[in-house]
Specification:
- The structure is a single chain.
- By secondary structure, the chain is of the alpha+beta class.
- It has 2 domains: 9-234, Jelly Rolls, CATH 2.60.120.650; 240-296.
- The protein is built from 8 helices and 11 strands.
- The chain has helices at 9-18, 38-47, 76-81, 83-86, 99-120, 172-180, 235-252, 264-296; strands spanning 24-27, 53-57, 88-92, 124-133, 138-142, 147-154, 157-161, 198-202, 206-210, 216-220, 225-233.
- The chain has a 7-stranded antiparallel β-sheet.
- It starts with 8 loop residues before the first helix and ends with a helix.
- The model has no long low-confidence stretch (mean pLDDT 88).
- Bound molecules: fe (ii) ion.
- Residues 142, 144, 216 line the site of fe (ii) ion (FE2).
């Protein structure tokens, strides 16, 4: 049996103990991987479609207008090569479209599959991102809809992670707005929340597992930072999202939904009902499409 290439044995143990609901440090081995050398990342930034590359100068105003975000007049590859002193923030999105990176992501997910797929079912929507950021930058308080392992490749950062599902930190109506779409990514933060948080200080070789919708914010260290984020969704994350969508519909009809988790049987019935209705709607749409196709001939 070959040794795992992506995660250290203790990292796999820590992941197994925490998954799926708890955050955990996860030791990894990718910081020396050739695909994360500066030249390889610069080449990737150049060959990815433009829609997968987002960047801006890191010193944005608190009330920054989205249509006036300053950008460096450099090519994506040049931004990567001059990260040490160009003051930029950059994300390479969905790098799994690139075969070399896709193979690496799949290898990582295979190593944690005995725990992840046994607990939350088959992987859905695997996606990976590479974040490159200037020294000392901050990623504000927010939550994400996926399971996520954030691997530190170069530089340092501290991620403060709050428990997922604590309605005193993220109210139920904010969860519902999140799944309806259109809610602002950054959320209200109160220093009182910090009593429930856990800090993960990360350098090269250290990662953190962030559960689905566990709120977090990130402080970068004094050097440029490179991080690799591997994300996936599951039957569990899909069910959580469906539950909030059903609750949001109920609220619009004037019915106050119960808190998630207060009645697991009711929650399960809502999720099953939503899957059934959405499945039926999708079937009906396909049938109508076929009728239209036939009518066109
Ligand atoms: Fe995040």
């Amino acid at each position: 049996m070959t040794a795992p290439a992506c995660f250290a044995p203790e990292g796999l143990r820590d992941f197994a103990a925490a998954y799926p609901g708890g955050s955990a440090p996860v030791a990894h081995r990718l910081h020396d991987h050739p695909l994360f050398r500066i030249d390889a990342l610069a080449d990737l930034a150049e060959r990815l479609p433009a829609s997968h590359v987002e960047h801006n100068l890191g010193n944005l105003a608190v009330d920054q207008r989205p249509d006036a975000i300053p950008r460096a007049a450099l090519s994506p590859g040049e931004i990567v090569r001059t990260l040490a002193d160009n003051g930029c923030w950059m994300v390479l999105k969905k790098v799994d479209v690139d075969p070399a990176y896709a193979a690496l992501i799949n290898a990582c997910l295979a190593e944690i599959a005995p725990v992840a797929t046994r607990t939350t079912g088959a992987y859905r929507r695997r996606e990976a991102f590479i974040f490159l950021s200037a020294p000392n930058s901050v990623t504000p308080f927010h939550m994400d809809p996926e399971h996520n392992i954030l691997l530190q490749i170069a530089g340092s950062k501290t991620m403060r992670v709050y428990p997922a599902g604590d309605l005193s930190i993220v109210p139920q109506t904010v969860h519902e707005a999140f799944h309806r779409g259109g809610a602002h990514r950054n959320m209200r933060h109160d220093p009182k929340f910090d009593a429930h948080a856990r800090d993960f200080a990360m350098g090269p070789g250290q990662a953190v597992y962030v559960p689905v919708k566990a709120p977090h914010w990130v402080q970068n260290g004094p050097e440029p930072s490179i991080s690799f984020s591997i994300t996936w969704r599951s039957r569990m994350s899909d069910g959580e999202a469906r539950l909030h969508r059903v609750n949001q519909r109920m609220r619009r009809l004037g019915i106050a939904p119960g808190a998630p988790g207060a009645s697991p049987g009711t929650d399960a019935a809502k999720v099953a009902g939503h899957r059934l209705v959405k499945g039926a709607v999708a079937l009906a749409r396909r049938a109508v499409g076929k009728e239209r196709d036939r009518a066109a001939y």
